[in-house]
Amino acid sequence: MARNGDIVHHAIPSLRRVLVSLSLAVVFALPTGVLVGYFRQLEQITYLPFQFMRQNPQGCKIATISRRFEKIRFTRRE
Known about the structure:
Blueprint: H1 6-38, H2 40-55, H3 62-74
């Protein structure tokens, strides 16, 4: 695998996924967390949805949607 370059071929999409996920977390989750921590009323509004997503990861469809989109967009045709 290392000799014929397959590792690089498989590593690049994996690194892309990690970087996209980290970028989305920085852009959306970090400011959301700061705002929820700063504004008491926003914390009360978001408490139940956040607890649901934390306790029930299958209920959070963002990962499923992004994986389906990624397969459609980044699938290499041979």
